[in-house]
Write a structure and sequence with these properties.
This protein is mainly alpha-helical. 69% of the residues lie in helices and 6% in strands. It is built from 6 helices and 3 strands; from the N terminus they run E-H-E-H-E-H-H-H-H. Helix 4 (71-124) packs antiparallel against helix 5 (133-163). It is rod-shaped, with a radius of gyration of 31 Å. The mean pLDDT is 87.
Length: 196
């Protein structure tokens, strides 16, 4: 990252490193993918290609000086550095969004699952009066439905991400609020909070 010009064979690692550090290149390709990379470097305007058969001490020196003092290449290097920086920042932002989303989804999936496990464990241990069994079974059923709905929402979100389309869904806000209130009722009562 301290070089002004990088003389390279045009291998993918060398080219990538020069692009990341914003160093102009003289590419002397001779095998494999190197000629393709050299054409890309020229197309991006961040270096020049010197044919392997024409490469010698004098021609390399001439190309290095040519690249070193080419203002178009310098400008393209700066534009490319800015573009790479923006892409890196955007990638970091997306990584954080994904990480936060995974944490939130994990929490949202855990809540109904813990309810199902808790109610079923109480029933399995015979701690439910016969008259309360139907209410416990209904809670298990409702939480399982909530879990299934969350999973469906996640699948829908992943499809939206793939399609990158605008998406609108109509829903009954009152039913959502009532469902949330019902699910939080026990926790609210334990903490002395009244929900109405």
């Amino acid at each position: 990252n301290m070089a002004d010009v990088f003389v390279t064979h045009g291998g993918m690692n060398s080219v990538s490193e020069a692009l990341v550090y914003g160093v102009s290149m003289v590419v002397i390709p001779f095998v494999s993918d190197q000629p393709v990379n050299a054409r890309c470097i020229e197309k991006l305007g961040v270096g020049k290609r010197l044919e392997y058969s024409a490469a010698n001490k004098d021609s390399i020196k001439e190309y290095v000086l040519s690249v070193l003092f080419d203002t178009d290449i310098k400008n393209n290097i700066e534009k490319n550095k800015e573009r790479i920086l923006k892409q890196n920042l955007e990638q970091q932002r997306l990584d954080k969004v994904r990480k936060d989303m995974v944490a939130n989804i994990s929490h949202e999936l855990k809540t109904p699952l813990q309810s199902v496990l808790g109610y079923s464990e109480i029933m399995l241990n015979g701690l439910v009066k016969e008259g309360d069994q139907q209410r416990f079974l209904q809670k298990i059923y409702d939480e399982a439905k909530n879990l299934l709905q969350l999973i469906d929402d996640i699948i829908r979100l992943s499809k939206l991400d793939e399609q990158q389309k605008n998406f609108a869904e109509h829903f009954d806000l009152r039913a959502v609020i009532e469902n949330v209130m019902e699910r939080l009722q026990n926790k609210a009562q334990k903490n002395g909070v009244v929900i109405n």
